[in-house]
Amino acid sequence: MSASIRERYPYLYETHLHTCESSACAKSTGAEMARACKEYGYTGIFVTDHNWGGNTAVDRGMPWEDWVDTFCLGYEHAKAEGDKIGLDVFFGYEAGYNGTEFLIYGIDGLWLKAHPELRTATVEEQYRLVHEAGGLVIHAHPFRVAGYIPELRLYPEWVDGVEGINATHSNPRSMAHNNHEFDIRALSYARTHALPVSAGSDIHEKYLFGGGIAFSRRLVSAADYGVALREGDYVLTDGSVWYDKHGNSIN
């Protein structure tokens, strides 16, 4: 990417990140992830751990409010460290529906506590609840093929955007799910339905890929992420290649 373009979009955010406090598949703590991302050069991160419908590290048998408190620890540890080192840390989560996953932004732990019905909500009900709160629903890696995904399910009417660039699919350093075709299909799907495209690393440890979205302005909150996507002034990256907001390479 040319220096002039990078200068135009100086605020880089990791939008898909897991911590070992809350995601069973993660290897690094929230604080470790925050330090690694700050060192890499990110402006901010969204902690998107697996919820009760996915590969959570939190006992699903806990009372709901206790479950939420424990689930939020990865984010809280990352936020505490981010506040110390100058890294913006925002809350989110990855909602699982038997392998189909969605990235949820713009809500918080208090909102989760107030909505225990989310545990049994359908994809449509999830969308309506999140939207009532002013949040954002992004379909994560919609065309990934993996053992934990029994079938491909698409919900263009119940999402606000598509994760079209997932660094685990396309970054040459990735050791899992590495197939760029997954992203190519996701980008085509987003264009067909005129849905905004997002990018993230889907990172599970402090060995970073560098994926994410770079904006021309700094985000002020998790809710502001949705506003910035609608404004459309951003570029995408898998940490190796840079793309415009539609997923076209601009390296």
The main sheet comes to: 10 strands, mixed
Alpha carbon gyration radius: 16 Å
* Helical content class: 25-40%
CATH class wording: Alpha Beta
Q: Which H/E pattern describes the elements?
A: HEHEHHEEHHEEHHEEHEE
> Which homologous superfamily in CATH is the superfamily?
Metal-dependent hydrolases
Query: What structural class do you assign from the helix and strand content?
Result: alpha/beta
Q: Regions with pLDDT < 50 over 5+ consecutive residues?
A: none
CATH architecture descriptor text = Alpha-Beta Barrel
Q: How many distinct folded domains?
A: 1
Q: Please list the strands of the largest sheet in the order they lie side by side.
A: 7-6-5-4-3-2-1-8-9-10
Pick out its properties.
10 strands, single chain, TIM Barrel, globular, 251 residues, 9 helices, alpha/beta, 10-stranded mixed beta sheet
